[in-house]
Fold this sequence. Notes:
Blueprint: H1 4-16, H2 20-39, H3 43-63, H4 67-100, H5 115-131, H6 142-149, H7 167-200, H8 204-220, H9 234-246, H10 249-255, H11 262-271
Helix pairs in contact: 1-2, 1-8, 3-8, 5-7, 7-8, 7-9, 8-9
Amino acid sequence: MLLLPVLLAIALGTLLSGSRWLAALLFLLALAATATLALTQSRAAWIGFAAAMLTLALALAWLRSGPRGKRRLAAGVGAALVIALAVGGLALPRLAAEMNGGEAITASGDAALTLEARVEIWSRAVYALQDFPFTGVGLGAFRRVVNVLYPLFLLPPDADIAHSHNQLLQVGVDVGLIGLMGYIALLFVAGVSAWQAARRGVHRELALGALAALVAFHIYGLADALALGSKPSVVFWVILGLVAAISDPLFEAREAPVTQPEADAAPVAMQT
Length: 272
């Protein structure tokens, strides 16, 4: 979720810059990564990836359109949202019934987690957030706390529930409400910084790829989570560091071509 949108954006930027062979290689790598994503059979991941691609396409279209094109794009997006909400309202009961038809997770995590089991885990995360609002239970401690303080009824007592299966809930459970507010503020600043860098044209595709990656990850995070204390979470911080580097004014100054008027060249030479 975090790497694939960035890879696709870099491939697109490479293609637009004229490096066709390098772009072809990057697109092949992206195709392999997309196949890997498909094999995970994670519906949340598929929806997150679709949201990332939609974000990337809309952002590029917006930045490359004039005032009239932007108005048409905004109208089209509004109409698409209305249709999506209508279709989603009709399809949601059927999707919920299909998800509840699966087996509950076992201690080894072999079977799929049903929607009812996820709702129960979410409720236990809310209880933990209510009991530890300022400090949270600690990084990676939810799997030890949930079966001791908040027993589950739909899952066996020896099931290893590593996280709350919701990214924002998991952050709140780990570090408390103040930490959750800081996390949301961090996401907001990263999103605004990436968009501003894309508008200025500083590695536009790379900035939009990072923005799409954050969108994909948190759409995926509505039904799953990547705990802050886990090893793969370092990729999340790499994406944030990439956004910070692109939006740095010094980085932009280094990327801009250095030009000097001819009239100033003589005094500079005399001073030298």
